[in-house]
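Structure ticket #2291
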Amino acid sequence: MIRIRTKIMIFVTVLVLLVNGVTFYLYHSSQQTIDQYHDSFERFIILNQISKQTTEVYESVNAYVIEKSPRYLDDYHRLRDQLVDEKEKLIGKVENKDNYPTVTNYYNMIESFLEECERTIEAFQKEDLNQYSFHLNEASKVSRFIQETTLSLLNSELTSYRAFYHAMEQKNLYLQAMGISLFVTTIFLSLLTALWFSRGITRPISLLSSSARKISKGDFSGEDVEVRTNDEMKLLAGTFNRMRRNIRELIKEIKDQSELDRLLKEMELKSLQSQINPHFLFNTLNTISRMAYLEGSEKTSDLISSVSALLRYNLGNLDKPTTLREEVRIVKEYFFIQQTRFGDRVTFNTDIDDTCLDIEIPILTLQPIVENAFIHGIESYESDAEIKLCVYEEKGQVMIEVHDNGVGMDEDVKERLLQKEDDGKPELRSQGHSTGIGMKNVVKRLELFYKNKSEIQIESAVNQGTMIRIAIPCTVEKRGDDQYVAYYGS
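Resolution: structure written out below.
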């Protein structure tokens, strides 16, 4: 996360670096221009000095020959040394790739000129008239060549200087345009950044304020406040969004718990429709069962025991969950009662994995499904009716399947059984049996119990039987007194 303070520091740093960078570039460019101008001007001075000193050296030699005065000889030596110094500057200051041949020749002519002057002095001091006159004449010729070459080099330098001056003017205009552009860019960038910062702060605050006003009015259904900046405002918006989602989930949980309580009350009312005292009924059935056993009617005793167990389970504490093992046990008791009633007309089969039977499950889940399979599926069959209960584990879920080879159902009935919301149509219910609990009640309680992590499927077609499959998590987590929520085991 990049803090707002960090963003401001980055912007100021970038702005300072930009301004200083451009300022340094302008300074460096102007310094280059000054250096180029200084070099050009220095070349003019060197060439002018060489031209002037060549003339002075020749005049001093000529004066010494005519006047024979040592003063002129001293002047000659002084001026010659100066000319030698200026000559050495040609290589580093004047010479370049364009005038290399000319400057080299110019350099050699100066050396020749100085050599002729030295020979003139030597011949004069030996009083060799012919030799010093010849060398003096040669020095004069070389001096004229030097003057002509100097003019040629000066003319070349002037030509280059005109191009340099034109380039300098263009560069000056470019630098002026850059300065103006920098000024405009700095102002524009500052305004743009200020707008960006203000929008990144004020817009999220405005959205949060609007959402907070809706929450204060009891409206928790708004969309999440979206903040694209990765700073404190994003953290604040994310915390606000999580708080609102948590409130929505809490409200939904309260509503679900209220719906579960209503369904449990409905089950209790169904279970108490007979308005018979449960203890009196259980005691009476147990007494009849013992009497039948003592009289030798063991099958009758077993039947009465099964009825007693079934009624005790149905009239028990419906607020607490039970285990799948207990649900299977009660279904087997129900199987025994119905098989005693219908004999060979119906067959009950089971295929149960015992390791899956210790998980939590809402009470009265399997029996209503088996009742519906019997009443709406196979009760009308005179023979070869079959119901099968299968329990097994698959992909981290416990699968419960109830099969029958009965009359089946059409798509409309399947949709009504699995519909989560009330569509206004009467629910299909069992008639004349122990629970009277509808299939939709079972479906709804499973969704609430497992927090929508359970799955219920119905595969059926008319006259082709029905298979109801329930997939539930392998484990459940206890959360508070007698309140359970499903989760998948690791």
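Closing remark: Residues 219 and 260 are 24 Å apart (CA to CA).
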